[in-house]
Design brief:
Number of helices: 10
Number of strands: 15
Bound molecules: adenosine monophosphate
Strand content: 25-35%
Order of helices and strands: EHEEHEHEEEHEHEHEEHHEHEEHE
Largest sheet: 6 strands, mixed
Structural class: alpha/beta
Length: about 280
Amino acid sequence: MIAPLRLAIPNKGRLAEPSVELLRNAGLDFELSERRLSASVRNADVELLFVRTDDIAEYVADGLVELGLTGADLVSEHGGALHTVLALGFGACSLVLAVPRDGEHSAPADLAGLRIATSFPRVTAAYLAGHGVDAQVVEVRGAVEVTPQLGVADAVVDLVASGSTLRMNGLRPIATLLASEAVLVARDGMADADERVGGLVDMLRSVLDARGREYMMMNAPAESLDRIRALIPGLSGPTVMPLADPAFIAVHSVVERSQLWRIVPALKEAGARDILVVPIEKVVR
Ligand code: AMP
């Protein structure tokens, strides 16, 4: 018997629930026990390990698991030989350099000789070195944004999504070090060598591809086909079917949800009617 594919996912925090939801939507059938340590997937040879988001890159690098689901920011900070297999489209945030709003610093170069607090010491040091700024990196574990008020640091490098936490603490971003989202990572070279990874990645990708898309169906005058086709080209062109009345056709297509507000009025204008829009679960290519 071959050992199951081990996938480490966050046991708590902001990436935990969306990770479980993504895996379930991809069709993996598993139960969450109260302590959330591990779970066997019933319908696939996959073992889930629930660990701290911060530790996942290390688990993958050490070969304790074949795959990990964590933030791209944490993969960068780890700095090991890890390979991003798939970007997952949630957990978006940026790592920014921020300074007190009312202070005199407005560019990275102004921070020479000062103290910068962060939970990302490696990425911060690399950024400062890249910009030729000689500053002191102060590693803190949490509540980075309050360190200037406490007098512990002159600036911070911290994660932001909306930026409201920084603003509430009187800080203003002056540079972005990296943009992050949740990612699936493997050790370098591992993902290609293990075909079980490919199967799981394909299923996850089919769910991600379906997100933000809808399936549209409509009836329309046959003579409007060219206009309608231009509006809804679909994945490989729309499906067109004859109706009992030869003057009419049925047209089906996949559309981007964000474009519906623009497409629907134009379709009506082209003579389409009985327009149905239904959700898509997966897109398998
Ligand atoms: P946790 O601290 O366990 O909630 O997860 C932190 C991870 O969530 C970070 O490493 C990022 O990858 C991601 N994340 C997404 N948005 C934010 C945010 N606004 N602040 C901090 N982390 C975020």
